Amino acid sequence: MRVKTVYLGLGTNLGNKRNNLKEAVRLLRREVKIVKVSSLYKTKPVGYLDQPDFLNAVVAAKTSLTPLQLLKQVKAIEKIMGRVKSVPWGPRLIDIDILLYEGKKVNHSRLIIPHPQINKRGFVLKPLKEIAPALDRKVFKWEK
C-alpha cells in the first residue's frame, strides 16, 4: 500500500498532561512516521463539563496502515497508556482520534473519517490549522 498522510488528534486531562502527550507521540512513532507535531493547546472540556481542562495537540504522520489498522494501533496505545472508559466525553488519560486520512472517506461502524465532529472542535481546528494551513480552504470550512 502507498504511504498516506494522516492527522491524529491527541487529548488528555488526567495526570501529567504534557508527559501523557509526549508518551503518546513516542508510542505513535513505533507505528507511523511523525512529520509534524502542533503546539499544545489548553482547552475547556466539551460535553461533560465537571472535569479538568484538557491539553490537546494534533500530529501529522505518514503511514502505510489502512484506516482500520491505524485505528487498532491507536486504541492499543490508549490501552498501553492506561486509558479507562468512563462517562461519554469524560476524563481521560489519553485520547487519540484519527481526524483525516489523505482524502479518504471512511464510514465504518468503528470509524468515520473525516472525524464527524472536526468542524465543531476548536481544540482540533486550531492545532490542525497550525501544522496544515493548506487544508484551510481545500478540505473544510473552518469555524471563524
Essential attributes:
144 residues, 4 helices, 5-stranded antiparallel sheet, alpha+beta, Alpha-Beta Plaits
Structure description:
The protein starts with a strand and ends in a 6-residue tail after the last helix. It has a single domain, classed as 7,8-Dihydro-6-hydroxymethylpterin-pyrophosphokinase HPPK (Alpha-Beta Plaits), CATH 3.30.70. 28% of the residues are buried. A hairpin with a 2-residue loop joins strand 6 and strand 7 (111-113). The chain has helices spanning 17-28, 67-81, 122-131, 135-138; strands at 4-12, 33-37, 41-43, 54-63, 95-101, 106-108, 111-113. The longest helix is centred in the middle third of the chain and has 15 residues, at 67-81. The strands form two sheets. Strands 1, 2, 3, 4 and 5 form a five-stranded antiparallel beta sheet that branches. Strands 6-7 form a two-stranded antiparallel ribbon. It contains four helices and seven strands; from the N terminus they run βαβββαβββαα. By secondary structure, it is an alpha+beta fold. Helices cover 28% and strands 28% of the residues. Helix 1 packs across helix 2.
- Helix % is 25-40%
Q: Give the number of domains.
A: 1
State the total count of DSSP E strands. Answer: 7
| CATH third-level topology | Alpha-Beta Plaits
Coarse shape: globular
**Radius of gyration, taken over Cα atoms and rounded to an integer in Å:** 14 Å
CATH superfamily: 7,8-Dihydro-6-hydroxymethylpterin-pyrophosphokinase HPPK
Structural class assignment:
alpha+beta
Topology as H/E string? EHEEEHEEEHH
Task: Output the number of helix runs.
Answer: 4
Query: What is the CATH architecture assignment?
Result: 2-Layer Sandwich
Task: State the low-pLDDT regions, or none.
Answer: 140-144
How far apart the termini lie comes to 37 Å
Strand count, sense and barrel status of the largest sheet are: 5 strands, antiparallel
Strand content: 25-35%
